[in-house]
Structure formats: structure tokens, C-alpha cells
Amino acid sequence: MTEPTASVTAAVLVIGDEILSGRTKDKNIGAIAERLTEIGIDLREVRVVPDEASEIVAAVNALRARYTYLFTTGGIGPTHDDITADSVAAAFGVGIDVDERARAMLLERHKPEDLNEARLRMARIPHGADLIANPVSKAPGFAIGNVFVMAGVPQIMNAMLDAVLPQLSQGIPVLAETIEAGGLPEGTFATGLSAIAARHGSVSIGSYPSMTQSGFANRIVVRGRDAEAVGAARVEIEAMLETLKR
């Protein structure tokens, strides 16, 4: 990885009718977000689009222009509705065909006589793309420009992500401090928290209520890249909460 920089951004494009219908529950967004956060890359946007070429092309072109990196998941399998590779090729204005490198990878898993037309769809790669290794099932993903095209199956996606991450520019990691607000409702401290946030513009402050086994609980999270700024905001928040609990 290169030296850390202040702002490296990313988007995730999830492709698939099965996600939009609710039939399949996405497990990749959180996994990608967590891994990117660890190396200081800000995930700024997530989109989900159907298996429609025009939708995929439009989303790829919009997101790759807006962010440092774009990661796509889904739609690179052997069936007729797996159109991500063709759509990404169209977005970049390049051709697509069976890639001999990808074919060789598939032959590590399949006998030559079993490499039928459907399986060869997984070897169709846009011209000029680099391959992303797939140690799980061998069918590769690919990278073209700042776009990384990965499988939708979580186990395979994570294996591909392992191969991709070392290639990325590293940002400055975001620090996060969590302050337990106990059972205090947000309405009790919202005004004070807003004032603290205004005084500490270099950090992000959020309030996150939840229901736990022991009842209602609230957590306030301070995020930022400057440890001193994060710490200063935390001190003020803790002091405010202590006053409210008396």
C-alpha cells in the first residue's frame, strides 16, 4: 500500500434482483465497510441495482467518477442473468471475450470437457482488465480502472477482497470512541450534544439508541482522524452526561 492520505473514498454497488426482492439478504456491504475502515478508506455510498444492463452501466459510471474506488458484488456467475462483466465492459467502452488467463483458472477446477458454454461465461473478462484471484471456486473477478468486480457469494467475495486490499491506497484510519449514555433518552441530551458537535467540527458525533436484554440503552460515538480532537469531544460529552445523571 502507498503512504496514508487524508481522503480515500469508496462506493459499493450491489447487483442483483434477488437482493432487491428480499430473497437474498446482503452480507457483503458490512464486510467491505469494516475492512475499508481498517485501512482508512471512507465508504461513502452504497447502491443496489437490478440485473439490468442500463442500470448497472449508469451506476458504474456515476460511482467510479465520484469516488477513489468502486467495488461491485454479484452478477459474475454462469447463468443468463449474470451480466455484470458485460455491463462493466460497456461502461468503460471496451470489448469483452473469454480471457485465456481466466480459462486457465477454471481448468484448475474443471476438466476440459466440462468447461461448457455456461462455465465459460465466468471467463469472459473486459479487455484490459486485471484478474482478481478466487481461491474458493477459481472463477475470477476482475479490476478495470478504479473498479473492482467481485462475486456475490460472501465467502468468495471475502477471498477476493483479501487479494484486492493490498493494491489500494491507504487512508488515515478513523478513530472511534464510544460513550455509554445508559438509559438517558436522546431528548434529554440532544441540545447539549448539538452544542458540543458545533464546537468540535473536525469530528463526527452520533447518538445510537437501542433495545438490549436489560432494556433501553443509548450510546454516543465520536469519530475522527485526530486523536486529540476525538478525546476533547469525548471529555465534554462525558461531563455533560454526568451532569444530566445527577
What share of the residues does DSSP label as strand, in percent? 25-35%
Oligomer: single chain
**Continuous helix count:** 9
Helix content: 25-40%
Tell me the structural class. alpha/beta
**Order of helices and strands, N to C?**
EHHEHEHEHHEEEEHEHEEH
Provide the residue-averaged pLDDT: 94
Shape: elongated
The low-confidence runs, each spanning 5 or more residues with pLDDT under 50, are: none
Please outline the major beta sheet. 6 strands, mixed
Strand order of the largest sheet: 2-1-3-8-7-6
Gyration radius, in Å: 22 Å
Distance between the termini: 49 Å
Care to count the β-strands? Answer: 11
Describe the protein's architecture and organization:
By secondary structure, the chain is an alpha/beta fold. The chain is 38% helix and 26% strand. The model has no long low-confidence stretch (mean pLDDT 94).
Give a brief rundown of this model:
The protein is α/β, with parallel strands linked by helices and 246 residues long.
Write the layout of secondary structure elements.
Elements: E1 9-15, H1 17-20, H2 28-38, E2 42-49, H3 53-66, E3 69-73, H4 84-92, E4 96-98, H5 100-107, H6 117-120, E5 124-126, E6 130-132, E7 141-144, E8 147-150, H7 154-164, E9 175-182, H8 186-199, E10 204-212, E11 215-224, H9 227-245
Parallel strand pairs: 1-2, 1-3, 3-8
Antiparallel strand pairs: 4-5, 6-7, 7-8, 9-11, 10-11
Helix pairs in contact: 3-4, 8-9
